[in-house]
Sequence to fold (201 residues):
Amino acid sequence: MFKLCPKCQLNYITDDGELCTVCRPILHTSSNNTNLSNTKKTVRVKKEIPRRNIAFKCTYCDGGRDFGYIGFCGACSPVNIKHNIESGRVLCSASDNRCGRFLKGEMSYEELKKFDDLCYESNVFRLWQFGAGGVIKGKNKGKPNRLLGVKRNSLCVFTTKKPFSSSLNRIVFAVSIVAGSIEGGEYEAGLVKSHENIALC
Fold:
C-alpha cells in the first residue's frame, strides 16, 4: 500500500516509511566495521531540488527593424542601442560591449550586424537559449547567477518591456519548454536551452 509523503505531498512512500527519499535528509546505515557492528553512522543525503519554471526579464531588442517592434533576432536598431546604453542596461553599457563601440563611432552599423554573439537578447528567436547573467548589485555583485531547479521540461517564459514603459507594462513575448540547462556555479552563469519546435511567440 502506498501513501503520499506527509511533508511534500508529492512522492509516494510505503506504509512503513515516514518520509519519501527526497524529504528524508539523513539516512542511518550500519557501519561495515565489525568492531563497531552495534553502532550507526550518519550519512547526509543532498536534498534534490524540485523542478522549477523560469521567467527571464529581457532587455528590449527590436531586432534592427523599428523602435517599438518586438525583434529579439539580430542587432538592435541604432536608436534602440542608444536608448539601452543611455538608460544604463547592464550588459548594453558594459565597457567592452560592441554596441557601445558602435555608438562611439569605433565601428559601423553594418560591421556590428555581422556579429552573431552580441547578446542573449539578439539571439532568442535564433538559438532559443538564454543565460542567467550576473548579480547586478549588493555584496555578490558581479558573481554569476545560478539556475536552481530549472530542468528538462520546465516552463521558460521570456518577458520584456518596451522603451519608456513602466514595469507594470511588462509583456510576455515568448514561451517555451526547456530542452536542457546548465545550473551554473562560481565561474559561469546558468544557461537554458529551449525546444524550438514547441516554442510559442
Remarks:
- The CA atoms of residues 58 and 141 lie 19 Å apart.
